[in-house]
Amino acid sequence: MGKDVIVACDFSSKDEVMSFLDKFQGRKPFVKIGMELFYAEGPSIVKEIKARGHKIFLDLKLCDIPNTVKKSMKVLSELDVDMTNLHAFGTKAMMEAAIEGLTRPDGTRPLLIAVTQLTSTSEERMKNDLLINEPLDKVVMHYAKNASECGLDGVVCSPLEAGKVKEVCGKEFLTVTPGVRFADGDVGDQVRITTPEKAKEIGSDYIVVGRPVTQADDPVAAYERCIKEFVD
Ligand code: C5P
User: Fold this and answer.
1) Cα-flanking dihedrals φ and ψ of residue 16, to 5°?
2) Annotated catalytic, 61?
3) For the chain, which domains are there?
4) pLDDT of the chain, 232 residues: tens digit per residue
5) Which residue in 11, 35, 40, 162 is deepest, having the highest Cβ count within 10 Å?
6) What is the 3-state composition of the chain as percent helix, strand, coil, each rounded to the nearest 5?
């Protein structure tokens, strides 16, 4: 599996995302569609972006009872996305049901990735709000191991955790890492960040980059810079 840069298209309408994607006349970026765009435009936005030749990571972070997740994943499998995800917090029974639902009759399925702990969840919030008293790092590795045992393909994690996840789950287990910023760029609200170059060194398989590309004066140049630093 080759390394790639996934562009987080955090827009709230079809017009905005399409005029952004129109700028890319050469290499077509791997696109992340999140809840904001999906809830605004529905499944047709996935099909339209796919029809333009982009690979798609559908980031809906499912978490519900196993039966509901299984049936929802079946619907998503028909959208022909390349990658989708769920919360590892939903337990191993839910992750196993998700794989079943996502697998098409011919045995193929999109990559399935688990969110361990959101990067917005601090150890303090985990203790106080969720009554989880283990260190954050231990919880992330435990959830990653659960995901791996259920047959999932990888996890979303901080680029700073990617190396450790590979040690625990094996080097084939994918790490999809947001929180990427250029060395000379704006940090915004992200906390645990690194550069595309450093993410490559640590062993991320996919970096997810949003604002450093979407808000750049020249988004295509910013995207090409990510490719140059992370892939080439
Ligand atoms: O704009 P920025 O590069 O910060 O965008 C990062 C993207 O990755 C956003 O779509 C955000 O929702 C997503 N993400 C994240 N941290 C996580 C999971 C997803 O930043 N733990």
Assistant:
1) -65, -45
2) yes
3) 4-230 (3.20.20.70)
4) 689 999 999 999 999 999 999 999 999 999 999 999 999 999 999 999 999 999 999 999 999 999 999 999 999 999 999 999 999 999 999 999 999 999 999 999 999 999 998 877 888 999 999 999 999 999 999 999 999 999 999 999 988 899 999 999 999 999 999 999 999 988 877 777 899 999 999 999 999 999 999 999 999 999 999 999 999 9
5) 162
6) 45, 15, 35
Burial (CB < 10 A; 0-12, 13-18, 19+), residue 68, is: middle
Specify whether the CB–CB gap between 199 and 183 falls below 8 A: no
Backbone angles phi, psi at 57, to 5 degrees: -105, 110
| DSSP per-residue string spanning 22-86 | TT--SSPPEEEEEHHHHHHH-HHHHHHHHHTT--EEEEEEE-S-HHHHHHHHHHHHTTT-SEEEE
Crossing angle of the two packed helices 136-149 and 123-130, in degrees rounded to 10 = 80
Which of 5, 6, 10 gets mutated to test ligand 1 (max ligand atoms within 8 A of its CB)? 10
Instruction: Identify the CA nearest to 117 among candidates 57, 165, 167, 153.
Output: 165
For Cα atoms 185, 186, 190, give the angle at the middle one, nearest 5 degrees: 120
Q: Which helix (H) or strand (E) holds 7?
A: strand 4-8
Tokens of 133: 């008293």
Task: Report the pocket of ligand 1 as residue ranges, CB < 6 Å.
Answer: 8, 10, 34, 118-119, 156, 178-179, 188, 190, 208-212
